[in-house]
Amino acid sequence: MIRDNQGNYEITEFGDERVRAFVPSPLPPNPPLVMDGTLQQDLEAAVLALGRLDGIARHLPDKALFLYAYVRKEAVLSSQIEGTQSSVSDLLFYELEQAPGVPLDDVVEVSNYVAALEHGLRLLSEGLPPSIRLLCEIHRVLLSKGRGSTKMPGDFRTSQNWIGGTRPGNAMFVPPPHTAIPDCMAALERFLNAEDDGLPELIRAALAHAQFETIHPFLDGNGRVGRLLITLLLYDAGMLRQPLLYLSLFLKQHRASYYELLNRLRLTGDWEAWVAFFLEGVRATAEAALSTVDRLSTLFRDDRNRLGQSAGRRLGSALRMHDALKARPILSLPVACRDTGLSFQAAASAMKVLVRHRIARELTGKRRGRLFAYDAYLTVLTEGTEPL
Question: In 3-state terms, what secondary structure has residue 83?
Answer without folding.
Answer: coil
